[in-house]
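Researcher: Next sequence.
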Amino acid sequence: MTNDATMSFLSPLYVVAAPLGQDADAVQPAFLIGESPLSTFDEDVLPALAGIWYAMHLPKTRFETLDTPLLGVQYQVNGFPRSHSIALVPDALLEKTDLMRRLIAPYEPALMIASADRIDAAARISDELHFTLPPARLDVLDQVTLDDHWRRLSARWSQDWPNNAVVDPTVPRWSWPIKQDGSLLSLQRLSRLMGAPLETMAEYAEPFESAAHVLYRRVYLDTLVQLEQEGIGTDTVSEVLPAAMRVMSRSTRTRLTVSISGTAPPYVRFASGTDGVTKMPFNDNFPHVRTLLVTHSATGDDSMGIVLERRSPPRPFRPWPISRNIGRRRKAARDLPPFAAF
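Model: Next structure:
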């Protein structure tokens, strides 16, 4: 391919096929019927979390496999977030080729992850629907498989790059089980794009530290891009960098995704008929699930994510009309745990 070609690709799709219960492929009712649920999270999904988390360590776009200049890195993390495209499907759909074909149509099917007893069905449909990689087993996901999948995706996609494109061989570090840190994977992915050492969980005692480090790296990136555009050479950049970063920190903005533990009273009343203010019959102790959701949002543009540990009272979850006095909102914000109300 010539070096002046315009590049446009579909988003890679990662499919996680999991045993989601006997009736997983049946039409679900619009209203909860029968026995009240014990939590706001369907625990049948728990075995699939490893596959979803693993997919979030893989490239969310083809361009992440390239060694790009700082301006290109800045473009990737600014603007509209580009989150991973991950489809969680009941493994019963592995027998329904036409339905799966329609599901993957808007994407580039990259990898399917399935349980060991369904890997043959996953291999058959992966081959039939032209997935880039053969399927992976849920129970053998680790750094070795992550290295292999990054290498094979990079090699396949490199066939479509211009002649002067350089592939970045660096692979993120696999982290399992999920820790209660919504910024760690964003920090690791941003560090990788910038050519910095990859961070490990052991370096951070508090999740807020990794969020602050993400912001620091974003300021650092914006400053380096500005100095490069101003023609500051590498021999003098270290002299002006600290002052330039202080100035840049006043204007750099990055998204913050926050997860608050608790349940909205209207949902509790809808689901169980109990008073959501005085009775909380649900088990919402799924911090790893909340971390996954926060991380998926944050890695869309390698921004900050925070998962608050302490359970919040029902008040912050109450919906208010836009015309309601803002002072009441501030009062509710004061009910949140420290660090939540900023």
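Model: The chain has two domains: 1-176, 177-342. Strands lie at 12-18, 85-90, 108-114, 136-137, 256-261, 304-311.
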